[in-house]
Design brief:
It is built from four helices and no strands. By secondary structure, the protein is mainly alpha-helical.
């Protein structure tokens, strides 16, 4: 799993935010478009694309895409 692919897949869960604006340092919870529905979409994407189940409580402490990526890697 590569960070660039993860960012692309992450960004595809948003309708109004361009994928090119996302970086590992993006604080996704601060995005205007961020909602609980986006959180569920991201968790679903991680399960389908990477075969890794992340629980909402596990995702809560993550603030950046890098932190979420690291969490996913830790589950491999």
């Amino acid at each position: 799993m590569e960070m660039n692919d993860f960012i692309k897949n992450f960004g595809q869960q948003f309708d109004d935010t361009d994928v090119s604006t996302f970086t590992p340092e993006t604080r996704f919870r601060e995005l205007e478009e961020w909602s609980s529905l986006n959180a569920l979409a991201v968790l679903n994407m991680i399960g389908k694309k990477y075969g890794i189940k992340i629980l909402p409580d596990e995702m809560k402490p993550t603030q950046t895409i890098q932190e979420l990526y690291d969490l996913v890697l830790s589950k491999k």
